[in-house]
Design a protein that fits this description.
Layout: E1 2-8, H1 14-23, E2 27-30, H2 31-37, H3 44-53, H4 66-73, H5 77-102, E3 108-112, E4 137-142, H6 145-155, H7 160-168, H8 173-177, E5 182-185, H9 190-216
Parallel strand pairs: 1-3, 1-4, 2-3, 4-5
Helix pairs in contact: 1-9, 3-5, 6-7
């Protein structure tokens, strides 16, 4: 397995890049999907969220209303810390389980994870901790803050204060960029983003093939 950590700021275009990498043959583990699953009705995560924040954060069908929950926590650091305490350990454990299943795969596996830096799932791999994966490469999809603000307001109909709160709840773009082996700036058209994603995909595919070939020959990876 050639493991790629894919991260980036909110509204930077990370999901579009993830979809392109899947088109190029990658297997995908989506942390957002994991985050939804660990709080499905009846799970321990769901029960702890209801206990902490009340049933007001549920929709009419009893599912966690992610938008309502976000409004509840993004302006209150203590509430956000409580939510992270409930969800982050469950997210990292489930991700670890999915990566274990994919371990025999000799191609590229992409872990699409907005909070790679915030969850501590970066290069500080601890072999004794199953929940801290070792990345072969980290890709950051980046955009300027004003671009993020504009997209959040136009595409997700957020107020300026809501957009700023969402951005500020994540690690800064500079912190994310410090982790990167590859950077994709998304300040242009969708076609331009696709071209940049293909450029990086070519490099990752070549590196994955090289790793697989070295493994077949019994050679260590650099």
């Amino acid at each position: 397995m050639y493991l790629v950590g894919l991260t980036g700021g909110i509204a930077a275009g990370k999901s579009t890049v993830a979809a392109r990498l899947v088109q190029r043959g990658a297997e995908l583990v989506d942390a957002d999907d994991v985050a939804r699953e660990i709080v499905l009705p009846g799970t321990d995560g769901w029960r702890e969220i209801v206990e902490a924040f009340g049933r007001a954060v549920l929709d009419e069908d009893g599912f966690v209303d992610r938008g309502e929950l976000a409004r509840e926590v993004f302006y209150d650091e203590s509430k956000r810390a409580l939510l992270n305490e409930i969800t982050h350990p469950r997210i990292t454990e489930e991700i670890a389980e999915r990566l274990e299943v994919l371990a025999p795969f000799d191609g590229m596996v992409v872990l699409d994870i907005p909070l790679l830096a915030e969850l501590g799932l970066d290069r500080e791999h601890d072999p004794a901790k199953r929940s801290t994966p070792h990345y072969d490469a980290i890709v950051v999809v980046a955009a300027r803050r004003d671009t993020q603000m504009e997209r959040l307001q136009q595409q997700r109909e957020m107020s300026p204060s809501e957009a700023a709160a969402r951005i500020d709840a994540q690690a800064s773009m500079d912190e994310k960029l410090a982790l990167a082996d590859h950077v994709i700036w998304n300040e242009g058209t969708l076609a331009q983003l696709g071209t940049e994603a293909d450029r990086v995909a070519d490099e990752l595919i070549a590196a994955a093939r090289d790793k697989a070939a070295r493994a077949e020959q019994g050679l260590p990876n650099d």
